[in-house]
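Throughout our pipeline, every protein is held as a single compact record rather than as scattered files. The record that follows is passed on verbatim for readers who wish to inspect the format.
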Amino acid sequence: MAFWTFVLVAVAISTLATIVNNWIRAHHGYPLEDEHGVGRIRAELAALTAENRDLKGRLSGMEERLRVVERIATDPAGGIASAIDMLRLAEPNGSLSK
């Protein structure tokens, strides 16, 4: 009978410790997670999703810049020079400064 009493007390202490641990974590604003770390995995997934969204935005900007560079590289030299001359003529003081 003493063995089963010990097992029952050990299970009760373990359950009480888990409840107190979760209460303390929730009280101080820490994310709750189970023994498999599901809360941590969800937080990492949210961070990776936000980073992925940011990187996709940056990639689309880089693709646009690459298109411009490809257009400049494949455009005949006379076309680029004439476009620059037209911009110079359009400026009131004749310079291309920003």
In short: The CA atoms of residues 6 and 12 lie 10 Å apart. The radius of gyration is 32 Å.
